[in-house]
Design brief:
Elements lengths: L1 H22 L2 H14 L13 H7 L28 H14 L3 H28 L10 H14 L4 H4 L6 H21 L3 H19 L5 H14 L6 H22 L16 H20 L19 H8 L2 H18 L6 H15 L20 H14 L5 H23 L5 H10 L5 H13 L3 H14 L4 H13 L3 H18 L8 H10 L4 H14 L4 H13 L3 H14 L4 H13 L3 H13 L6 H12 L3 H14 L4 H13 L3 H20 L6
Helix pairs in contact: 2-5, 2-6, 4-5, 5-6, 5-8, 6-16, 6-17, 8-9, 8-10, 9-11, 10-11, 10-15, 12-14, 14-15, 15-16, 18-19, 19-20, 19-21, 20-21, 21-22, 22-23, 23-24, 24-25, 25-26, 26-27, 27-28, 27-29, 28-29, 29-30, 30-31, 31-32
């Protein structure tokens, strides 16, 4: 019996050794990281467009056609914003999604999750190399295990939700992927034996680093981290090799600076905070405290976080609320002291803790309020700094002579707990109403959140509820033009047209002043003119003309005014308004479509066809230019040309019934009755399918 037990024990030991050997396989660890990344973000895959997604993933002109790939480098991310975000690679990634997925948001979200999973795998591979340069961290645990656990915890942490579950947040993961790849390529080039191969891989690393910078400005911190490791921790390179590497980094940054100088249209200068150094120091500590809390205990997650609100100090209630923020300052001081103390803690993992602490501090400083940003804190800004925090914490754990099995159990527990929280947080992004409601419930009651939530109430017909929300926003932000504009919409739906007109008139008159603090104040003039045009067309045109003095290159104002001219059959004035804008902005799809329509109604057939063909090239899925072109060709009795134009429109939008209706009409005129009936049958089939099968398209 004893012999049998020994055999069983030996068999079990052999199985555990086989499992342990398998788990040391790099490919399996990478697969686990990918699986974790997907598992926790499944809820967001069905998510719709939220917040900036409406512009970046739907209206964004630079993602609509591969012809605009180069043009994306000549513009900032947002055309009408105070933010000088230069992220052409983000636009290129959106272009890729739009080309293959059209408006199906599932594809956009899938790309985000794939990028994050790739970032996790590359992080694991990179940390394995970095930790090896630090020497053996623990006597009992292989360095690669630490790298794997850092990557696994990082990939499931819920604080990164806004960078993954939010389509517009992908700039963080894009920069992360390309920066990690650049660093790994640099390591690969160093080990290459062939000079040609080494040169090619070095060039690939430089291109990847430049791509990271063109994905998000925070990639500059990757350059700083690379140089820190190069000069402080890498003992295998000569001083000469390190200097050449640093020169290479400088050239990459210089190339990036040159690319950033390409855009000719500069964003409007936003309001300056003008905070004094003591205030900035206080906000730095509060930000550090808030980020520490979010990393250790990720509750109360939401967009529109803030650790400072100037107007709050104007009331007793506001002052009391502000005082509660001071615990963040205390937590920030405590965190800073812990970083310093643990870095001086001697032991085998000291260098790991120093790397982690330095990584966090370097990546944290740009988001610490030492410079003005569009917020005081934001969860997705932790995408890069959090890596340093997790390295630091595991470096502390390694000092307690913890065994591999114990560390594995601890890491597994953390991954499960954080993964569950991350999956729930991911569900916040399923649709706009869920997002704004949960954000407000979690404390993100900013003016922007309230206005967007109010717009949803209007869409649902809850006008009184929307009015109350907008008035509450205006109580604290009386010059917020967009809130005024939406209040007028709610009042109009409530049958209070006179009051709505008054609100719009006041918003339009005050837009010149409020534009110093708020973007897009032109929206009030567009809506005011739209209402005014029902009784006073000349007055409406005058309103838009005055607004264009403040926003001379604003397409919405130009489009609104040209439409009023079109409604009065003054096509020449409309053309003279639209044509200069279209010719100056060859990439602008909407302006070329509008110009084509105006020329068509003015009887300029050749000019109309030229403009419409140009518009059709600027959006690979747009059918409108081809529809209008087909109608023009029908009027000219050019039925073969009309058939070809409409067939292209059908190919672009094969799931839209209206495309087959026009195609059927053309076929009928051509005497192809059987094909015309088949096209109409397709209409009935698609309409029946639309009733039974909800679409993912917005």
């Amino acid at each position: 019996m004893k012999i049998d037990n020994d055999k069983i024990d030996n068999h079990r030991s052999a199985r555990w050794r086989s499992l342990a050997t398998l788990l040391r396989k790099q490919w399996l660890r990478a697969l686990i990281i990918v699986a974790l990344g997907f598992a926790v973000h499944v809820p967001a895959l069905q998510g719709q467009l939220v917040w900036d997604d409406d512009y970046l993933a739907r209206e964004n002109p630079f993602m609509k056609s591969p012809l605009l790939a180069v043009e994306a480098f000549r513009h900032y991310l947002f055309l009408d914003s105070y933010s000088a975000h230069y992220r052409p690679v983000q636009n290129l990634s959106l272009m890729f999604d739009y080309f293959f997925w059209n408006t199906n948001t599932f594809g956009f979200h899938l790309t985000n999750v794939l990028l994050h999973a790739a970032a996790g795998v590359l992080l694991y591979l990179l940390l394995s190399r970095i930790f090896d340069s630090l020497g053996q961290i623990s006597r009992k645990i292989d360095n690669s295990i630490f790298a794997f656990f850092v990557a696994a915890i990082w990939v499931v942490h819920p604080v990164h939700s806004a960078a993954i579950d939010y389509i517009s947040g992908r700039a963080d993961s894009l920069a992360f992927v390309f920066a990690c790849a650049a660093w790994l390529l640099y390591f690969k080039a160093r080990s290459a034996t062939s000079r040609i191969v080494r040169a090619l891989v070095y060039c690939s690393a430089a291109v990847s680093a430049l791509t990271a910078l063109c994905s998000r400005e925070s990639a500059l911190m990757w350059v700083a981290l690379f140089c820190l490791h190069l000069f402080a921790f890498d003992k295998t390179l000569t001083r000469r090799a390190k200097i050449f590497a640093a020169i290479g980094c400088a050239l990459i940054v210089a190339a990036y600076a040159g690319l950033r100088d390409l855009p000719q249209q500069r964003p409007s200068k936003g309001p300056s905070m003008d905070w004094t150094p003591p205030v900035r120091a206080m906000l730095l500590l509060r930000a550090l405290g808030d980020y520490t809390r979010l990393l250790v205990f990720p509750s109360n997650l939401h967009m529109e976080r803030t650790i400072f609100n100037g107007p709050a100090f104007q009331s007793e209630q506001g002052r009391e609320a502000a005082l509660t923020l001071e615990y963040l300052s205390i937590l920030g001081v405590t965190s800073l002291a812990a970083f310093v103390a643990a870095s001086f803690w001697r032991g085998r993992a000291q260098r790991m803790r120093i790397v982690g602490g330095a990584w966090f501090i370097i990546a944290f400083l740009p988001i610490s309020n030492v410079v003005d940003l569009n917020a005081t804190v934001a969860e997705h800004w932790l995408y890069l700094p959090s890596v340093g925090a997790f390295i630091f914490l595991l470096g502390c754990a390694a000092e307690f002579r913890i065994k591999a099995a114990q560390l594995s159990a601890l890491a597994a527990a953390l991954v499960i707990a954080l993964g569950v929280r991350s999956a729930y947080r991911s569900s916040d992004w399923v649709d706009a109403e869920t997002f704004y409601t949960r954000t407000a419930e979690a404390g993100g009651t900013s003016g922007r959140v309230s206005v967007n939530l109010g717009q949803i109430y209007i869409a649902h017909g809850e006008y009184a509820k929307a009015e109350k929300l907008f008035r509450n926003v205006l109580k604290f932000q009386p010059d917020y033009t967009i809130a005024r504009n939406n209040l007028a919409t709610a009042l109009s739906h409530l049958g209070r047209d006179e009051e709505a007109m008054k609100v719009l008139a006041e918003a339009t008159a005050g837009a010149h002043e409020s534009r110093r603090d708020y973007p897009r104040t032109w929206i009030a003039a567009v809506n005011y003119a739209g209402v005014l045009a029902q009784e006073d067309m000349a007055g409406a045109i005058e309103v838009l003309g005055k607004a264009r003095a403040d926003y001379p290159e604003n397409w919405e104002l130009i489009a609104g005014e040209s439409e009023l001219y079109r409604r009065t059959n003054d096509f020449s004035c409309g053309i003279e308004l639209v044509r200069p804008f279209a010719e100056k902005n060859w990439w602008h799809y909407a302006s070329w479509l509008a110009l084509g329509r105006l020329h068509a109604e003015n009887g300029d057939v050749d000019l109309a066809e030229s403009a419409l063909r140009h518009a059709s090239q600027l959006d690979v899925h747009a059918s409108e230019p081809l529809n209008v072109l087909a109608l023009i060709q029908i009027r000219q009795n050019h039925l073969d040309d009309a058939f070809r134009s409409q067939s292209r429109a059908v190919a672009r939008q094969p799931e839209q019934p209206r495309q087959y209706v026009l195609l059927s009409n053309i076929l009928d005129k051509m005497g192809r009755a059987e094909e015309a009936r088949a096209a109409l049958a397709k209409v009935s089939q698609l309409r029946a399918l639309a009733v039974t099968s909800p679409t993912h398209s917005p």
